[in-house]
Design brief:
The protein is α/β, with parallel strands linked by helices. It has five helices and six strands; from the N terminus they run βααβββββααα. 39% of the residues lie in helices and 21% in strands. The longest helix has 15 residues.
Length: 153
C-alpha cells in the first residue's frame, strides 16, 4: 500500500517548482525532511541519474521519479502535487501534476522494482489521481493512498 511508504513530512500539495530540476530538488528536500540521515544531494543525484536515462513521466499527469540510495532499510515514497503542472517530458506530452518520488535501498533492486509496480498500479486509477489533485493537505493524501483514518480525539 502506498500509504505504508509515506510520512506526512514527505508530502506537499503545493509544489511550486517550474521545471524538472526544481521538482527533483523538491522531492529530495521532502525525503530529507522526514529522514535527516539521508543526504539531500545524494537523493537528488539518484533521482537525476535515473531521469537522465528516460523520463519517468508515465502519462495522465503522473511522474514516478525514483532511485536507489545507501542507508535505507526499506523503500520510501514522497508525493508532491503541483496545482497547474510542470513540463516533464511525459510519454503523453502533457504537464505532470502528481509526482511520486520513490527511493529504494541500494542493495535491494527487486524490492525497488516491486514498489514501483505497486505505486504505478495505484496511480492508474483515474479516481485516485483526481482525488489526489483535490487533496488539501498531507492527511488527505495519506487517506487517499490507503492509510487508516485517524481516531477522533
Amino acid at each position: 500500500m502506498l500509504a505504508d511508504l509515506l510520512h506526512p513530512a514527505r508530502i506537499t500539495t503545493s509544489l511550486r517548482a517550474s521545471d524538472r530540476d526544481g521538482v527533483l530538488r523538491a522531492l529530495a528536500n521532502l525525503f530529507t525532511a522526514a529522514d535527516p540521515k539521508l543526504d539531500g544531494q545524494g537523493v537528488y543525484d539518484a533521482l537525476l541519474k535515473r531521469e537522465m536515462l528516460a523520463s519517468t513521466g508515465v502519462g495522465h499527469g503522473v511522474a514516478l521519479p525514483h532511485g536507489r540510495v545507501g542507508g535505507l532499510a526499506a523503500p520510501q515514497a514522497a508525493i508532491a502535487i503541483h496545482p497547474s503542472g510542470v513540463p516533464f517530458r511525459a510519454v503523453d506530452g502533457q504537464p505532470v501534476r502528481i509526482f511520486v518520488g520513490i527511493l529504494g535501498p541500494e542493495d535491494e533492486p527487486g524490492a525497488h522494482l516491486q514498489t514501483l509496480a505497486q505505486v504505478s498500479k495505484a496511480l492508474r486509477d483515474a479516481d485516485v489521481r483526481e482525488r489526489l489533485l483535490t487533496a488539501k493537505d498531507a492527511d488527505q493524501v495519506l487517506t487517499i493512498c490507503g492509510a487508516a483514518p485517524k481516531a477522533a480525539s
